[in-house]
Design brief:
This protein is of the alpha+beta class. InterPro entries: Bac_surfAg_D15 (IPR000184), BamA/TamA_POTRA (IPR010827), D15-like (IPR039910), OM_assembly_BamA (IPR023707), POTRA (IPR034746).
Length: 766
């Protein structure tokens, strides 16, 4: 007769159900019943008793708890038949398959991977609690995508051999769109002005891409903070957001957002004082103060002031300085005075600089960019400069800096630079289009961090309707420890501008190689030198201009156009203080570049280029760019400037609205552009965000004014020869490459000018 000792109900696990007492006995045999997939040995491993040992009530409870904890069984029972211990189990089913029906918003394989991470996957034990969690998480993901009407129905289908199939049936519904954003209580600023601060917006012509018409709690929080900052930066010290309401229509398709604010009064700054342990002369602190007495209060300027003071103290070695502003508000006069308390703390120096995360890149590649030295006083400016220089290498996705205090000391810190490496090898196949070059094909293989050394090697092919280039280049940015760079280039180039440009017909096939080196003379300044040998075959045609034919006439010169060999020396200087290479808003860029052909080469000429570009920021989203580009070339030693070295103007890169390279001297017969030996280009461009994109900097629009012209040798440079144009431009850093459009309206032109009002370029044209 079998005596039931314990049941495997869940209540038994917590010893709340009564059990039948029994006398301890010696186990002569153990038998497991009810298993289908689980090995008997697995059950034996969770039993606290072996054959020949004494079995007690406490061990029975322990065995049941252990077997339940595996998650393999729905029910566990222990029975005794004489001196035989019988373990009866009811296994949980295994998951045979997981299917998704109606899912379009997410990749099904990605969903399965996510379920696998939480324990819900094919061949694993089925747990209904995990299924419920997965269903709720999937629902949350749809809510994050703005699909509030999504309905998820899960079905568990029993299958043979104690298995189940899971089916997620999804009705995604439509994306809920923001139909209205309302600001209540604003009087100082118009609705359009404050709503323009919001990234969230109602549906527009570009919101299909930005998704800014879909509600996001995080985006709304950021928008409210932008709203708060906008008021606080304009003197409204008592500004407050009273309430925020987000409502959705019953059909879950439309969202309405209402924000209630209290503006308060506008305050001016009556005084700015500095107190505490100043260390530096008070006059120096006053120079750092961005907020001045008599001005409208601005939280941004106040924060800028405290940060500038802390940074200045950091440059003196006070790494942990505390700078806090205490306001004194006079509500009757609507004035506020600030006392800025300075506590520099203890001066510290850097014990050790550590580099981490560089599994491929050698330590020396990172360390040679350091401006903070070990054993020197802590200098915040030098540490930030070091981080910027490491980031500019392009070898790392992220560069972070930590300055922990050294344990057991009060005047030492370590500086830890942590980097996250990025792939630096590229295999690129690209296609571009432009209104001047038509189809542009490109391919390149490059490694910008060769064997972790920081050296760069590139093999490139670029071809368009008018040119084809093969190039191989190598650069060692630190040929010497003090930053002297050394590189070489080899190329083969075919150029036939008459195929697609408004240029007089000729053709050149050039092959060459050269050495170049550069040297930094300051943090933002560098000089460079180069020397190259070039061999060019020049082909003219019957319809070529007479001056081209004269240049290649052996009776008029002592070299043969079938093989023109030249030795070209180059030198240049550049300074770049822009805040970004891709999306600049402030700073300047200057470049001077000279090219000189020297004996024993057949050519005798020189060319000079000067470019100056300055960016002026307006607010956080607008910028004005002024650009000047000057060029001058001339032959010497009784030889002319080679015609294929002429300057050209016109097109999307210079004076928009005019056809590419069409401005300047023309052939009197064919009216094709000849180019010239002098060029002047000027551009004024005001950049602003594309409406509907918020602060997405990859989209930019601009209003431009271009001016420029080219003069041939012997012609007098006259302002009357300049061409002018104005218009609108659009640029987008798209996933397939930079995209540029411009619509230019010529303001001053000549009858022989060729116009092209609409111009575009997709991809980088070389």
């Amino acid at each position: 007769m079998k005596h039931k000792l314990l049941t495997g109900l869940l209540t038994a696990l917590f010893a709340v159900a009564p059990v039948h007492a029994f006398e301890p006995f010696v186990v002569k045999d153990i038998r497991v019943e009810g298993i289908q997939r689980t090995e008997a040995g697995t059950v034996f491993n969770y039993l606290p008793v072996r054959v020949g040992e004494t079995f007690t009530e406490a061990q029975a409870a322990e065995a049941i708890r252990g077997l339940f904890a595996t998650g393999f069984f729905k029910d566990v029972r222990i029975e005794v038949e004489g001196d035989v211990l019988v373990v009866l189990v009811d296994e949980r089913p295994a998951i045979a398959q997981i299917d998704f029906v109606g899912v379009k918003e997410f990749d099904k394989e990605a969903l399965k991977k996510g379920l696998r991470e939480v324990g819900l996957a094919e061949s694993r034990i089925f747990d209904r609690s995990l299924l419920e969690r997965a269903e709720q998480e999937l629902k949350r993901q749809y809510l994050s995508r703005g699909k509030y009407a999504a309905v998820i129905e899960t079905t568990v289908t029993p299958l043979e051999r104690n298995r189940v199939g899971l089916n997620f049936k999804v009705d995604e519904g439509e994306v809920a769109k923001i139909r209205q954003i309302e600001i209540i209580g604003n009087k100082a600023f118009k609705d359009s002005e404050v709503l323009g601060l919001f990234q969230l917006t109602t549906p527009g012509w570009l919101t299909w891409y930005t998704k800014n018409d879909q509600y996001s709690r995080q985006k709304l929080a950021a928008d409210l903070e932008n709203l708060r900052s906008y008021y606080l930066n304009r003197g409204y010290l008592d500004f407050n957001i009273d309430s925020t309401q987000v409502s959705i229509t019953p059909d879950k398709k439309d969202i309405y957002i209402s924000v209630s604010v209290t503006e308060g009064e506008r305050y001016t700054v009556s005084a700015v004082r500095f107190a505490g342990d100043l260390i530096l002369p008070e006059e120096e602190y006053r120079k750092l103060a961005a907020i001045k007495p008599g001005e409208i209060f601005s939280r941004e300027k106040l924060t800028e002031t405290t940060k500038a003071v802390a940074d200045r103290l950091g440059n003196e070695g006070y790494a942990f300085a505390n700078v806090n502003a205490s306001p004194e508000v006079d509500k009757e006069k609507r004035e506020v005075a600030f006392t800025i308390f300075v506590d520099p703390g203890r001066r510290v120096y850097v014990r050790r600089i550590n580099v981490g995360g560089n599994t491929k890149t050698r330590d020396e590649v990172v360390r040679r960019e350091m401006r903070q030295m070990e054993g020197a006083w802590y200098d915040a400016e030098e540490i930030n400069r070091s981080r910027t220089r490491i980031d500019r290498l392009g070898h790392f996705e992220e560069v972070t800096v930590e300055t922990p205090a050294v344990t057991g000391t009060t005047d030492q810190v370590d500086v830890n630079f942590n980097v996250k490496e990025r792939p630096t090898g590229n295999l690129t196949l690209g296609v571009g289009f432009s209104s001047s070059e038509n189809v542009v094909l490109s391919a390149s293989v490059s490694q910008q961090n060769l064997f972790g050394s920081g050296n760069a090697l590139t093999l490139a092919l670029n071809t368009s309707e008018s040119s084809r280039t093969y190039a191989l280049s190598f650069t060692n940015p630190y040929f010497t420890q003090d930053g002297l760079s050394l590189g070489w280039d080899a190329y083969h180039r075919t150029y036939d501008p008459s195929e697609s440009l408004s240029v007089a017909p000729y053709k050149t096939v050039s092959s060459g190689a050269g050495l170049r080196m550069g040297y930094p003379i300051a943090e933002d300044d560098a000089i460079n030198f180069g020397l190259a040998v070039d061999r060019t075959v020049i082909t003219t045609f019957d319809e070529s201009p007479q001056q081209y034919l004269d240049f290649c006439d052996p009776d008029k010169d002592d070299f043969d156009c079938d093989s023109v060999t030249s030795l070209v020396a180059t030198a240049g200087w550049s300074r770049d203080t822009r805040d970004s290479t891709f999306y600049p808003r402030m700073g300047s860029y200057q470049r001077v570049f000279g090219e000189l052909s020297i004996p024993p080469g057949a050519l005798r000429y020189y060319k000079l280029n000067y470019q100056y570009q300055h960016w002026f920021p307006f607010g956080r989203d607008y910028a004005l760019m002024l650009n000047t580009d000057l060029g001058w070339g001339k032959g010497y030693g009784g030889k002319p400037l080679p015609f294929y070295k002429n300057f050209y103007a016109g097109g999307i890169g210079s004076v928009r609205g005019f056809d590419q390279s069409s401005i300047g001297p023309k052939d009197p017969i064919s009216e094709d552009a000849l180019g010239g030996n002098r060029r002047v280009i000027g551009n004024a461009e005001f950049y602003f965000p594309l409406p509907g994109t918020g602060r997405d900097r990859s989209f930019r629009m601009s209003a431009f004014f271009d001016v420029g012209s080219v003069w041939s040798e012997g012609d007098k440079v006259k302002a009357g020869d300049l061409r002018y144009s104005t218009g609108l431009a659009f640029s987008w850093s798209s996933p397939i490459g930079p995209l540029k459009f411009s619509f230019g309206l010529p303001l001053k032109k000549k009858e022989t000018d060729e116009l092209q009002k609409f111009q575009f370029q997709l991809g980088s044209v070389f």
